[in-house]
Amino acid sequence: MADTSTLAIILVIISTFIGALGNFFLKKFTHKKICFKNPFLYFGIIFLGITALIYLIALSMGSLNVLYPLNSFVYIWINLISWKYLKEDLNIYKWAGILFIILGSLVVVN
User: Which of 2, 15, 38, 71 has the fewest CB within 10 Å, making it most exposed?
Assistant: First the structure.
């Protein structure tokens, strides 16, 4: 597939965000006593499943060598979600890493 549609790129970025939320819910699940009644477990599994489905749709519309590197956006979302909701540290090196991921993604997409 020579051309990768803009929609495919957007879908991959959306899937990385949903995947990051899924991992956030799994992390929240581990903060409490491990119990299968804990809704965070199910939210995490469901969100990761939705991520896979969206990613498959995106792959059908674009080149793997363009779309796969965009999976690195999950690191951006994880850092921002962890910083905002888990009060984890986001130092200058992590901000620099986020900037490099964005710049690298722009190079790959163009």
Answer: 2
Long-range pairs of 70-74 with CB within 8 A, sequence gap ≥ 24: 70/9, 70/12, 70/13, 70/16, 70/105, 70/108, 70/109, 71/12, 71/16, 72/101, 72/104, 72/105, 73/12, 73/13, 73/16, 73/17, 73/101, 73/105, 74/16, 74/19, 74/20, 74/23
pTM: 0.91
Please check the confidence at residue 20 and state whether its pLDDT lies above 80: yes
Two tokens, residue 32: 């409490």
Domain segments of the chain as ranges: 6-109
Q: In the prediction, which pLDDT does 1 show? A: 47
